[in-house]
Amino acid sequence: MRNFSFFYLLLDREPSSANNFHQDDEKEPTKIFANLSDNNHLINTTMCGFPALCSADAHRECFDTPLYACDACGHARTGIFIFVITITAILILICNFLVILSVYLTNKQRRKHIEYLKGSLAVADMMNGIQIMFVTLPNVVWSLRLSSSEIDRIQFALRGSVKATIGGIFFTLIYSSSIYHLLLLSLQRFAAIRWPIWYKTKGMQHMPLMIAIVWATAILAASVPTWFPDSFVFAYSASVFLFVPAFDSLDALFTSGLQVISGFFLLPYLMMSALTVATGLIVRNTMERSRKLSGFHHKKTSFNKETRVLITLTCMEIGFTVTLLPNTIVVLMFYFGQLDCDSFSIPYLISFYLSTLNSLVNVAIYSFRDETFRKNILKVFENLFSCCKKKKKDFQEFGETPAQSPPTPRVSLSTLISISFLFDKSKQ
């Protein structure tokens, strides 16, 4: 029976009365045991998945050898992985900081409610970079110093721990906050198109409160697994080097699991998509009526601006879906038996960290679609360049030798003649 979760999977084996590691089993040397059932019988389990920096034989070949010294783990692959995720984290942090800076630089009189929402979404996206920098990279480093048996012991020891719970909630919050921010953006666009007068006068007066509600709901959704300790558990996944939510059993998936996923993640996503589609239909119908009434020569109005904003939002939602789709497919392939524990880790690792690129998608879309964002960022770089240029000039002037005499001013011949003429005239 498979214990299914979003990002952490176990493969249950036959019951066993033993309560220690079967080191004499050559094929599966890293078996662990956990009390996973209500009647307190022990189920012999094998951790499904391994550090994708190593081959599928790493569990056996690296049983007593640290991964960095084991032939089953490639140093080149490790170096490339660390380099790629480091660059990704740096880009996520810098690019989303520029979004927040752009919101700050926008004139208060011209600053709209959607700007604050963009800044809040950028904070949510920055959390992905923070997680990679301060969770993934340290976990990669200490994993390389451990053997496969030690990693299995640590994975088992961390299941349900305070550290795993905090890390798992933060992990889930990254995705829940993105979904709820996009849902609020979709709701805002729908209200702006459907009830434009109400929207401009009263609709978005309480945007700070709405943003606070979004964050509160996202945190609530991320902490839901802690409400059902008999069904959910936060655990460490060696495949992606992160703390993630998991299900204790397949029964938990089909009972509490589906309810939580549907209520707190799938339903908001469907509502977001439905609102965007409905807004698009209203825009199309309104534009068609406008063309008929004006004889296909209608002027540009504020409605056209709202349409451009809707297109930007649609691109953001498509980017969110596309970046998460590969990881969802990999998990479903494992669940339906297309992937097993030996072939699961590498595609899962790649698809998972591809999903983190969602934190860069919004910035890329702003760069092409948002003129205000482009102007603000160009202004930042222009000021930075001029500041660096001025500092370089001051440094060069400061570096001149103090003892050096100032240059003698040069006087032209015409100036001397004029001075001489004035002097002679004064004598007369």
Number of domains: 1
Structural class: alpha+beta
Number of helices: 13
Give me the CATH superfamily: Rhodopsin 7-helix transmembrane proteins
C-alpha termini separation = 119 Å
| Bulk shape | globular
pLDDT below 50 for ≥5 consecutive residues: which ranges? 1-47
Q: Which strands sit side by side, in order, in the main sheet?
A: 1-2-4-3
Question: What amount of the residues lies in strands?
Answer: 5-15%
Percent of residues in helices: 55-70%
Which whole number gives the mean pLDDT?
Answer: 75
Main beta sheet: strand number and arrangement?
A: 4 strands, antiparallel
| Beta strand count | 6
From the alpha-carbon coordinates, what is the Rg to the nearest angstrom? 31 Å
Give the topology string: H per helix, E per strand: EEEEHHHHHHHEEHHHHHH
Please tell me the CATH architecture by its name. Answer: Up-down Bundle
CATH domain class name = Mainly Alpha
Write down the CATH topology. Rhopdopsin 7-helix transmembrane proteins
Described by its quaternary structure, the protein is single chain
